[in-house]
Amino acid sequence: MTSQLFSPDVQQTLDLIGIFVFALSGGLLAVRKNMDIFGICVLAEATALGGGVMRDLVIGATPVVAFTNLGYFVTPLLAALVVFFLHPEVERINRAVQTLDAFGLGLFCVTGTAKAHDYGLGAVSSMALGMLTAAGGGVIRDVLAHEMPALLRWDREIYAVPALVGSAMVVVLIGAGQLTTASGTASALTAFVLRMLALKYGWRAPRAWHRNGSRTSEE
Amino acid sequence: MTSQLFSPDVQQTLDLIGIFVFALSGGLLAVRKNMDIFGICVLAEATALGGGVMRDLVIGATPVVAFTNLGYFVTPLLAALVVFFLHPEVERINRAVQTLDAFGLGLFCVTGTAKAHDYGLGAVSSMALGMLTAAGGGVIRDVLAHEMPALLRWDREIYAVPALVGSAMVVVLIGAGQLTTASGTASALTAFVLRMLALKYGWRAPRAWHRNGSRTSEE
Amino acid sequence: MTSQLFSPDVQQTLDLIGIFVFALSGGLLAVRKNMDIFGICVLAEATALGGGVMRDLVIGATPVVAFTNLGYFVTPLLAALVVFFLHPEVERINRAVQTLDAFGLGLFCVTGTAKAHDYGLGAVSSMALGMLTAAGGGVIRDVLAHEMPALLRWDREIYAVPALVGSAMVVVLIGAGQLTTASGTASALTAFVLRMLALKYGWRAPRAWHRNGSRTSEE
């Protein structure tokens, strides 16, 4: 098992932090969409666990871990309660939430890639599943909330690309037999830093060439 | 196998009734969205079987039962035909359809919880999967029909909460070694009655505190 | 294994053609929705592989082939690049794209049905999964792009029905012990020709009777 990058206790703690903050983003969208406490819980769960559930389904790791690890399942409910009672305060610390979200992005792209590789998938697929683990929950959140997925909107700072870079580092490290706690942490930090820089400098990905016959047109 | 609450014939009959009426709700939405007969069949199938398919995928019960039990698969097509030819009449008996829908809700939350527990899931996850079995198909229906999921709208009578109560009763009964045909039926009836009461008295779940700075604001 | 209709090399070549053109349709929608290169890649992948992924999940064929066959995974990225740089040209040859799309529809309904049958599913379920393989990716594409699924719109030429006919032929052929390369190809061609005729003559499926009290009303 190469995916055991950290000691079980450390891994569980890091996972729960990432799950908690992903769940916050789901709960906040539910409040913005005027949902009730049940909707807040559903979006919190779907955002926090959806990416990992899809990864586990694709690689055949059933029952999926999101439903067998009680802590994974209960943590989003705690985040939903926090949002229910304190959502103006949570909105106010949006910068901190985005920073923690980037932390989750870095963590889950690394552990998702390593888990997919453990289940026998190749380098490219493992990278894709690492990104799916990190970014898939947000897509499910937006589909359930009847919104255009933020991940696919050109006018948002890049989110999946930092995850892809982190996943690619893990794949290269596995190939070189060099995936350790230190190098895995470095991969996660790289994704984290890229995401924070994207937020700071407004990095976006290019849209198709020749839209309306001219590459320079910007609507 | 604790999930064998009823004799196989009784179970199959109950399941088919629940599937039929869930399929009606899918078909009716398809008509309202002006879909053709094919769309009516797709929404009928998705609404009736979607929750069970998601449960089976999560617990690893593949091939999923919705595709291996011919009766489960064909019943929604019969409901689709009924809607295709008689939808004004079906709309007119809406109260009866809602009552049968509450029956399906009670049945599927109980059998879904028991099946998840049979596959080794814990109490909390089994509850969640029972609710997913009962309420998940309606979410897929709404996503496919490009609508905000009714389950997540604050202005609808509670739907998932009665299912959660039924699921919780099953989990407690399993823990106490007391899940029998009688106690399982009582759990399903509890969910059914709660849903009917919610419809009668307009029960809704609370939305987040401090929306717009005041808990009492109601838009 | 009845699903080995063609020699592995021929099968892989045909599959990659079908995947490429399905991916084009995903990429083109992404451009129309003003997505960036990342969104183009995601919609290309989802459209091309989504149907097969759902089929494999339902029948329990994990890890799903879309993530274990490198060619399947990389081909949509090539299609995404073509769309990114040349989308006006691709839009201009829309007739050719629709023809190739019908080719993919015919191919995937046949191979999807045969694979489902190989995994022990019955005739009706195998037909449904053949259709899901061929048409499911387009539904995922539309859901991700926040559009009403084209497959469910009454004002589009029939798409799934030709696939159902091809799937039904495969099921009958399997039942008669007559599924060969020749008869499988004939099934795929039948679906292809039906889809092309539907496009040429504007074939649509009927909507529910008695809409607004009159069968003849057409809005």
In words, what does this structure look like?
Three copies of one chain form a homotrimer. Chain A is built from eight helices and no strands. The first copy, chain A, is mainly alpha-helical and 219 residues long. Chain A has one domain. The radius of gyration of chain A is 17 Å and the shape is globular. Chains in contact: A-B, A-C, B-C. Chains A and C meet through helix 2 and helix 6 of A and helix 2 and helix 4 of C. Chains A, B, C: This is Putative membrane protein YeiH.
Key structural traits:
homotrimer, 219 residues, mainly alpha, 73% helix, disordered C terminus
Summarize the structure.
Three copies of one chain form a homotrimer. With 219 residues, chain A is mainly α.
Write the layout of secondary structure elements.
Three copies of one chain form a homotrimer.
Chain A: H1 8-32, H2 37-59, H3 65-68, H4 70-92, H5 94-118, H6 123-144, H7 160-175, H8 181-201
Parts with pLDDT < 50 across at least 5 consecutive residues of chain A: 213-219
Order of helices and strands of chain A: HHHHHHHH
- Oligomeric state of the chains in view: homotrimer
Structural class of chain A: mainly alpha
The largest pleated sheet of chain A is described as: none
Strands of chain A, total number: 0
The total number of structural domains of chain A is 1
Which range does the strand content of chain A fall in?
under 5%
Protein name (chains A, B, C): Putative membrane protein YeiH
Pfam families (chains A, B, C): Gly_transporter
Family (chains A, B, C): Belongs to the UPF0126 family.
Membrane topology (chains A, B, C): Multi-pass membrane protein
